[in-house]
Amino acid sequence: QVELVESGGGSVQAGGSLRLSCAASASISSSGYTDSGLCMGWFRQAPGKEREWVASISTERNLTYVADSVKARFTISQDGAKNTASLRMNSLKSEDTAMYYCAADASMYCYKQSPSRYAYWGQGIQVTVSS
Prior knowledge:
By secondary structure, this protein is mainly β. It contains one helix and eleven strands. It has one helix spanning 33-36, and strands at 4-8, 10-13, 18-24, 39-45, 52-58, 63-66, 74-77, 84-89, 98-105, 120-121, 125-130.
């Protein structure tokens, strides 16, 4: 079982920045996932809308993918420790307001935009951007 712990988020004015972090728990070592790495992604869901893929990273290959809609403003990276994923969000807009979710899957292939492609999910963290 993979457990994901999210941190960061909160409220910010438009034009500001936030950083979300996600760490896969040590319990994954028993499943062998640490040997092959994870695909870790960030999704967001605004009220009344479908869950939307934002970015993902292959922790073994350090390959990153970011949705075109936010590519100019968001970056995803590892924090240094393996099996972590940080989402740096700059120039935030009111339309970025949503619940953000960290997701993970035991796969090195990581250009995965569908929520169904991820087996593990964090609890979600709120990001609110006021204009």
